[in-house]
């Protein structure tokens, strides 16, 4: 071999010497015409273009050149740089004949790749086992390539590079598992596998286009298969398929909930279309459009349109109903125009929409319990110099129990800003006159209550009422004798309406008739009141050494006197009389059943009282730095009532007692109310309805209510364990939240919460038999492990002994994706729902984990 090398060197030296000799020989000069005859265009020598467009730079610990074969071999720490590409590998060969660069990763003793080939091009890094690159065609083939793209990793058995922007891959996996991306783990907790993938790159973005793609969890295939997928790698919003949840509901069968597509539209809009499909024939379509203009406004249009099918066709239990829901919300940014604002919250549903929910989310969030729905659109105009605010609105409310719809269209309110009637002489307001304030405004309302099928028909317009109201309120206050606050108020109400009531008894029909008459009528009423209020403090101290050091009592008594005349007297003309079925003369107001209210009847000259109390206790406490702890016995305890001097009978009102307090470090909240009837209620033998007598002093409970709420948690019971100090080692890779003892048992903080709500209500009135309502509600969650969570809620009716709405949920956090399961086992709607979703933002459109749009925080726009 040494002789062959020596021979090659001698040949090269001879050629160089010969060329040098020829170069030194001076050519003879030839005549010009001879030159022209000798050299022609056909004889011109064309220099071939070099195969390489740039210099090929190489380095390695061991380099070898095979001149006859035109091959270069690089071993150990090999590197090749060509144009914007750099290849680092354990072995690289360069074939000048084929314009081919081949690289291979480092092998172990068994021939297994233990270190990859690293190729860097245009700032992008690729890892492969083997890599081939043609410098002439600029095409490449890689085996077991690993490519990082915008928070995700693609690994493919074979990758072919057609150009700098198009890559074709065979048997490729894509994942966003952070541990796999950062090489903390050799296997990802999930990946999406496709037999063919095309990666397309442009200057601003790149995307993956695949054929059939299947989700694997812990290398186990799942039934989640898509016929194709387009995964965009861009910071901008992008279109994608929305993956549904699936489950079963007793009344409508198995389902796919939320199957759909997300499509951004321009800069300010996006559209999401979802579908719910049930095996028993029900279906639902849910389009949703979001819009946003930064610093101006944002809003959402949504709809639910579908058909609910229950039972089997041909049988008695078969029903088929159409349902709909249309909603629109609009919010104006406060920075856009402080003098003119517009907002909308429109939510219109069919009468039995919540009784036929096709969207299971309405079951899980308890919307099926809704009995009313309301909508409103509001425009508010403020002025820079005028002290007034004008508000125009339209509202619509539905009552699902009665089937009635209330419409207020249009409605306008003009409010004048509060002002003082007199100026202050000294700059500091003193006395009753200088403190007189005036509040006034106008309210115009068009109102109708009708059946839904009569909306915007002649029948509805005939029922429409128009009313105009004006209120003028004057108030003032001052301090008397340093400790008393004296207040005076006066109210004047003016009203106009377009319809009045004529009431009479029809002997033919044998019923009372309410006849609505179309005529303009109005009324004016006024009332005045005076009040006196002060605050008293009391302190009861105990002996030194006692657990209870002191009890503090703050009392706020107030007296008020209210006067208003009898507006039912004939002189005002607001009331009329008719003979009822028994022939008795019965008064009624012509403004009854109207929208402007009814003037009060009877003279009111009532003395009212209210006694407010606040009671606290100071006790010794080692946990407090001051050594003393305050405990609230009653945050508020109010007793109120009034005595009407002008009343002909029953001058005393029902006494009301209301209390509020909290215990156990403000954890247990207690709210109570009690209504006491001061007069004796007489019941005739066998009667269920009593009569209120004039016998005062027989206090009986007419109503009682108590509400309790207590949030419990693992933090309340015992001290929090410092696992880092208690246990010798902490988990690694996917077990960072675990601590291990000497026996290798895992320990972690098993947090839990439990909210307890209890309610008891008793109402009696004049009935012999009172009504009771009593229930207990539980709402809580517990972490079985740092990644497994169970949550649920239930309510138990203590009167009927029945379980009300109950929901149980399970969730598993796999860091890069989650698994959710919700189950309603009892009640009218028995349903379970299962969902798997990807957390990564890059897949949040294509494989929906949670709704994403530019109207939500942290979403790109």
From TrEMBL:
GO terms for cellular component: cell outer membrane; transporter complex. It comes from the Bacteria. InterPro entries: LptD, LptD_2. Residues 208-679 form the LPS-assembly protein LptD central domain. Pfam families: LptD_2 (PF19838). This is LPS assembly outer membrane protein LptD (Organic solvent tolerance protein OstA).
